[in-house]
Amino acid sequence: MNNYFLQPSSTPKLAPPTRYPQSLFHFISSKTPSHQLAWDAGAGSGQATKSIAALYANVIATDTSAKQIQFAPSLPNAVFRHTPPSFPVSDLPTHVAPPSTLDLVTVAQALHWFDLPNFYALVNAALKKPHGVIAAWCYTTPHIDARVDPVFEEFYKVHSAPYWDPQRKLVDDRYASLTFPFEAVDGCDGTGPFEFTAEVEMDLDGFLRYLRSWSAYQTAKEMGVELLSEGVVEEFKKAWLGGGGGDEQKVVKFPVYLRIGKVGNEKRE
């Protein structure tokens, strides 16, 4: 059997704090000659699926978490499916689509959880030849301003570091070291990573909620460690508000890194 997810569906994933930039999706769609059918793998609650469905006639969105899919949006041209953590290539028509019918496979902030050789076998079987495209991206730690960034860096690199899963290193590396055995798409010298930026306005409470959504935060809490202690929150408060009060909004910038490639003419095993 092909285990295309490395971890079971209960594995916590970092929830995106905002929509991914539309420039990301327009770049991806510009690399597929046809826009008939896309597969959004590891779709979760469909944060990226909506944008993909705006550019492709039909989308199959899959996830191993039935709970996540319950929160997916209702889209006229998208079907959300709960899939098992493992299935063979022969079951592609049941769970996704017949072989060689997909124009695009996308994976948003999830590829580092996958058993890559087995998932890539599914991708190579499912994509059209020779121009079917796979696009996978992650977003890394945000940038706020000169006051908040040093506090955040200490929180991320010192306080939360022991509680991240090993796969997080692939995200920190912007997916640059992630195995990605595909050909460069037209107009690109390589498969990336290519950088985009997602921006969202947040107040301090919203930013702290984002930090609490981290899998590292949840892991630490399960071990009896409160990463956002009163002292840490006070440091964030001083940096965020600069001695003032209120609910000051800040523009938080999240770098997004894309790996993109096509299957080419050669049959892959």
UniProtKB/TrEMBL annotation:
Superkingdom as given in the UniProt entry: Eukaryota
CDD domains in alphabetical order: AdoMet_MTases
Gene Ontology MF term list: S-adenosylmethionine-dependent methyltransferase activity
Database matches in Pfam families: Methyltransf_11
Gene3D superfamilies linked to this entry: Vaccinia Virus protein VP39
Residue ranges annotated for the Methyltransferase type domain, each copy included: 40-127
PANTHER family per record: OS01G0307686 PROTEIN (PTHR45180:SF1)
Protein name as it appears in the record: Methyltransferase type 11 domain-containing protein
